[in-house]
Amino acid sequence: MALKRLNATLNKNLEELRTTGRDKGVELVIKEVKKAKGKFGPRYILEGYGEQEFLKMNANSYLGMSMNPEVVEAEEKAAQKFGVGPGAVRFISGTHTPHIELEKKLAEFHEREAGMIFSSAYVTSLGVIYPLTTKETVVVSDELNHNCIIQAMRLSRPAAKLIYKHNDMNDLKAKMEEAVGKGKRCIVVTDGIFSMRGDFCPLDELTEICNKFDDKFEDGVITIADDSHGVGAFGKTGRGTEEFTGGKVDVLIGTLGKAFGVNGGYVVASKTVLDYLRESAPMYIYSNPITCSEAAATLKVLEILDSEVGVKRLAHLAKMTKKFEDGLTSLGFETIEGPHPVVPLMVRDTAETTKLVNYLTENGVLGTGLNFPVVPKGDEEIRFQVNADHTEADIDFALDVLKKYTEK
Hints:
Elements: H1 2-19, E1 30-34, E2 43-46, E3 53-56, H2 69-82, H3 90-94, H4 97-109, E4 114-118, H5 121-132, E5 137-142, H6 147-156, E6 160-164, H7 169-179, E7 185-191, H8 203-213, E8 221-226, H9 241-245, E9 251-255, E10 265-269, H10 271-280, H11 282-285, H12 292-305, H13 308-330, E11 334-335, E12 342-346, H14 350-362, E13 365-366, E14 368-370, E15 381-385, H15 392-406
């Protein structure tokens, strides 16, 4: 009986989301992937759309590695050797050689003492921020940080939390001054790349400001960046926002599930910090790790990324991103220009965003409509994500669909 009453209440909540255009809607189901052919990159077949082919411009797989034959082969070989799942959490019997090798490689990739993998990037942020936040910790956060950071702060219950204006380093400085005296430890946390907009945190400026306040806290100022959208897709060699800006944080969080095209999350930092997290992060202690095959696949991606092939893919990705941005601007659309392959088309209206997303889908282009509360009111947008599998013909195809929309 209780569930009957709960269902009635939840249905009202769902109807409110639908009528206001804030629901996520029915999930599109991919039933087939068609490999690149001729001048076009991969195409996707969806349930309910017959044999219509779709250009996928809403995927985080920026390097286009998820279908790479070498990566697929590495994953298959590891599955044959170790099985399809770890079978236990890490401290019991779930740690395998590929996990250790991947953590070592990630640490080397980011020039840190140690690395540690989690089941996802979202869980990584929770598993890092929560254990490092004490009752005498002040947390200072960018107002547009990802939901995982927001939830980690809520879970952590710090002595105080201060929110500075997006990428406003003057306001960060003001909040740091306000934080002095409110706790023994200060954590400053930011996204590297802000996933809804594609802009980046000036980590060089942020770390410089934080260093000036370090001696005003007993445990110092700890800088944390979640660069899940940056690593593998940003910077000349794919080292992310740190490489692009020249700033280096104390604790760097990344993902294996975006540019690397696999699954899982990770953190790199000092060995002491990670030794502590292995003993105190419940998201690590009580959850299975990624599979051995996923770890092996990521190791192959890192090998490719650190080769001439990887550098060429990054250069092509940057070229296609610029081509798409320039195309949007020439068609009269508003965007937030930048070197990262997240390219937002700013619509600034919920109904119009939904209308344009539907038109794109009807014409074979997949983009993500983002409405309040995912983004602030007035910042409604369609988020496009370019990847290294996209060709010039693909970008022209997407721009042509948008051009026809403006001519309706």
